[in-house]
Each structure stands twice: as structure tokens, then as C-alpha cells.
Amino acid sequence: MAEKKLMKGNEAFAAAAINAGCRYYFGYPITPQSEVPEYMSRELKKAGGAFIQAESELGAINMAYGASAAGGRVLITSSSPGIALMQESIGLLCSVQLPVVIINVMRGGPGIGSIQPGQADYNQVTRGGSNGDYHTIVLAPNSIQEAIDMIGKAFDLADEYRNPVIIAADGMLGQMMEPVVMPEPKAALTEEEIPVVKPYALTGHKNKRDRHAINSVWLKQELLENYINEYWPKYEKAERELQDWESRNLEGAEVVFVAYGSTSRIAMEAMEMLADEGIKVGLIRPKTLWPFPVNAFKEIDFNTTKHIISVELSQGQMIYDVKLAVECKLPVSLINRVGGMLLDPQEIVDRTKKIMEVK
Amino acid sequence: MKPVFEYTKGMRETELHYCPGCTHGIAHRLIMEVLEERGDLGNCIAVSPVGCSIVAHQYMNVDMMESPHGRAPAVASGIKRVHPDSPVFTYQGDGDLASIGTNEIIHAAERGEKFCTFFINNAIYGMTGGQMAPTTLIGQKTTTCVDGRTIEQAGMPMRMCELISCQDRAVYVERVSLDSPANVRKAKSAIRRAFKVQDLKLGFAFVEFLSICPTNWGLTAPKAMEWLRENMMPYYPVKQFKCPEEVKEVK
Asked: How far is B125 from chain A (nearest CA, A)?
């Protein structure tokens, strides 16, 4: 068994990517994720990979696009406004079906916002801000260990689905330290393995096959419609197969919290405090934000549960997915802070009691 | 019997969508002929821009990908990290490279990226229907400056070779013209030197091709060639800005 180490979140994200066989990273400084490019600039070369400090986030994601097309396993990271800049190419990567893993270490927004933790990019990561029809798979860890495990999984999902996968982390996960264990390292593909494992990759045709053309433009609209309809079933498959969540104490619960990421850990503490007062609270913690785990809501005991509360560091964004999943069986309330401010457990306890007073 | 001339294997046998008289066809063929001579068609990886030549991959017989508008140098930088020994080039027009993509091209040049950029300058946005480009000349009429470009309204036209040659790591910078058979031959030599710079990993190589857009200039092809000589050449001088010793002898 690998040794347990104390690691800072951002450094652990970078180490987990190298551990998962990632050899290409393109970064640009932005708080609170700058330890990722710092770590990669030191460590990626030792692993036989390549790091570029890009001229901008636009540069970074397009370097990732080139490296992914060439068959490389690629990571990029940024924080909220930087991810906003990358939107054009996230949609483009979906249109050409190329894998890349993107970590968003979310901070307060909108605009330049604050540099403290936030979750107000929920719509940005789950709906996306690029043009056209596409989805990105979104994973939401609530500990550094879970982030490490999800980063490994994200690279495999990106390859399997040939689609970008986003890790929705936040400034708290990026900046705090926790004991972690790295999984068994995976080898990167060799130059000989790339055309076998990734037959779409641009490697040069070596006069042995037709040339590959990676195209996002379609001058005949009927062909574009056919192409979208051809690959769309993979998103339906993802919605069926990838939903992932953790649920706690749903049986007999009077109140159910829905919370993800580091906020879920604060909500868990509030649950215990409420339990001490004799109020039974359950929890659904989405581990995938897209696809949203609607199946989790079938576990709710609607005989006992009278209140469902979306707990978020945003002005009520996930709550719309929660409402869709609850299918109007119960009203859904919101407990939130925004702008980089955090909830504390006592505040959640007090606000939960207020919500329970309303009949 | 030995053939004296053959269609290059670098060009796929398909009809080009470019307008009659357009010089993209010449530039495509020159690059592909050079790659064929070098035996590099099977090794090359290329990036096409947003603009008329976005579908260059339909014509060029090399592995190729499209780039978002202006980002081709970033895309090529990523490719080159995965395949450092493969010849890589970007093919970009003046709207793509000199307007929306100035950041990417300057930084790729400044990093000394080991790929070539072939820059097609026809002083106008072609694909979108003839709007003013950063390279549009003072007095030149386009659909977004119908009375002619003025300095007050749009400033001076961007001279990319001059700008890029200020970057130390852009080691080979040359402006050529596609207006005459003699200049076309010189353009081909410039392409050979650019790839040689890349072989030797000396730094970034940049070749600008003065080109025509008869459709959006509203001129016949021969008149457009004259217009290029009379108007573009004085402002965009055909010359070698920088050339490393190692490739000076490459013709």
C-alpha cells in the first residue's frame, strides 16, 4: 500500500494527474489554483512530460486541444473567470470529440469576483457557456482524497466518452491540506501505442492510411445534423450510467439536504448538530453534477420527509436540478452564501429551523 | 518515358472551393510540393485557421486539424509537445493571425516554438465577404470602410513580419509574394528554408505570402496581381527579415 502523505489540494490535483498518466499540462496563473501550474512546472518534466505557461487561458486550452488531438493525455486547470475564457474551446472540443480533463478551482463571482471559495460556476460547468449542443461530464469531489480518485477516473471517462470532463473543485479544496494516498500509477501511452489506442489521433499518416482531418466546421448543414445525432447517444448513455452520489440517513428523515463539494462537509456537520436536537436530517451529495443524480431522489422517504433544502455557495443554481429531480412532490428551499463567503454549520442549523417553521 | 511534371501527391485529387484567381491554391501546392520533396507528407501535422482556408484539410494530404479563430499557434504548440520530431505548420490568414490571433502568434514566436507559420496576407477578410482586415491598406475600400480605410478611424495596417522579427526567438522571418512565376519560385524556396529551420530546431519560422482576393477586391485576377504590386508591395516590402546562417544556402 502506498504511503499516506499530507498534501495541499492543488498540489495533490497535479500529482494525481501525473499519477494517472497525464504528461501534458498547459497553465496560466490565477488564484486560487496557481499551485497547480507551479507544481507541474517542477514535476512534469521529471515524469517525461511537457509544461507550457500559456499566454492566456485561451492559449492554454488550445494547447490542450492540439496535444489531445495529437494523442496526449492532457490536463488544464483554472479558476472561474479563467474557465469563462476557455468556454469557446470547451464546446469545440465536444464538437470534435476530443478528451481533456479540466479542473475548475471555483471562486466567488460573477465577473472578476473574489478569490475565496465559491460554487457559483454550477451553471457554467453543468450547462456550459459555449455555443451549440453539447455536454461536459462534471465530477464534484468533497475531499482531497476523493479529488485524487476522481481525477484518475476523469481521464478514463474523457477517453471512453471522447469528451471533456470537468472536476468542479473550489478554493477550499484547492487551498487546504489533508492526508492522502495516491493510487497505483498508470503509465503514459508510448508514441507507438498512441495510434493503436487512439486511432483518431494526428500522428502523421506515414503513407499507410488516409490523412486524418479533425474538423469542427460543417459547410453542409444536413451533414452536421447527422453527425450530432450520431454521437448524441453517448450523452444519453452517460445520463443512464454515470450518475453518482452519496446518500446518508434518508430513512425516516424529516429534512433532506442536497449539497456537493466542500459545502457538503459543512452540511454534514450541521446534520449532526440537528440530530443532537432530535431533528432527523438526511443528505444527498451529488458526486456527478452532470449527469445530475436524479436517481438519488428515489431514495427519499416521502412519508417522513417534509423539507428538501439545497445547500450551495451560489444564489440558487443547483436548486433547479434538485426541483426537477423532486418532481414537485415537495417544495425545495435554499440555504446559501455567495461572493466567496462560507456557510458555517450553526448558520445552516438556524436557517433549517426557520424553514421548518413555515407550514 | 519519364514524366517532366506531375501533380503533387501532397494535394488530394478534389476540386478546390476557392474563388477563381485566388492564390490559396498556389500557396497550398507550394507547401505540399516541398513536403513531398522532403518525403515528409506522412510525418507532417498541420493546423488550418478560421477563414477561407479552414477546410485546407480537404486539399492537403497531411494529418490536419482546424483551430478556433486565431489560436492555431497555441494548437500547434500543443501538437509539437506530443510529437517534437514531426514537422508541424500552421496556415493562417490575415484576419485570423493579425487580428484575433495576435497574442498567440507573438507568444509562439517569442517562445521560439519549433513549427512554421505560413501567413496569407490578402489585406481583407475573404470568407465573411470582404470586411476591413488589420492589413487593409489606407484608402482601400471594403464593406466596413466603404469610403476607404482612414488612419483616424482604423489606424495603420499591421505589418506582421516587422512585428514578429522583433522577437529574438523568431529566427527565420521572410515576406514573399505570389504575384508572378519568379516570385512563386522564391516563395517555394522560403518554405524550404522554414522547414529546414524546424528540422534543425533553431526556433520559430514565419513566412508571409502577399496574396490576392479578386472577388472581394472587385478585380479580375490579372488586375488584382497589378494591384498587389502597386499597392501592397510598397507598404509590405518583399524581403528576408531574418535568416539563420544554417539555412542561408537552402534554395
From this structure: 18
Instruction: CATH number of the domain at A301, please.
Output: 3.40.50.920
In chain B, residues with a C-beta closer than 8 Å to the C-beta of A92 are 68
- CB–CB of A345/A270 below 8 Å? yes
The arithmetic mean of pLDDT across residues A136-154, rounded, is 98
Q: Please report the domains of chain B, with CATH numbers, ordered by start residue.
A: 24-247 (3.40.50.970)
CA triplet A20, A25, A28: central angle to 5 degrees?
A: 140
Please report residues of B whose CB lies closer than 8 A to that of A22. Answer: none
**pLDDT surpasses 80 at A359:** no
What is the distance, to the nearest Å, from the Cα of residue A157 to the centroid of all Cα atoms in its chain?
12
CB spacing of A70 vs B77 below 8 angstroms: no
How many other CB atoms are found less than 10 A from the CB of residue A307? 18
CA distance B42 to B63: 8
Question: Is A58 within 8 Å of B75 when comparing Cβ atoms?
Answer: no
One domain, residues A49 and A146: yes
pLDDT in tens, A184-204: 999 999 999 999 999 999 999
Beta strands in A107-197 (DSSP E): 137-139, 164-170, 177-181
Alpha-carbon separation of residue A137 from A63, A150, A238, B153 (angstroms): 21, 12, 8, 46
Q: Is the dihedral of CA B58, B64, B68, B72 positive or negative?
A: negative
Q: What is the ipTM of this complex?
A: 0.97
CB A250 within 8 A of CB A296: no
The domain containing residue A338 runs over which residues? Answer: 245-358
Instruction: Name the amino acid, one letter, at B65.
Output: M
- Across the interface, do A52 and B81 touch by the CB < 8 Å criterion? yes
In B20-169 the beta strands, taken as DSSP E runs, fall at 45-48, 63-66, 88-93, 116-121
Cβ–Cβ under 8 Å, residues B89 and B172: no
Q: State the CB neighbour count (10 A cutoff) for residue A341.
A: 14
Which helix (H) or strand (E) segment is B144 a member of? Answer: none
Ramachandran region, residue B70 (left: φ > 0; alpha: ψ -120 to 50; beta: rest): left
Q: Record the pTM.
A: 0.97
Residue type at position A346:
Q
A295-352: per-residue pLDDT in tens?
Answer: 999 999 999 999 999 999 999 999 999 999 999 999 999 999 999 999 999 999 999 9
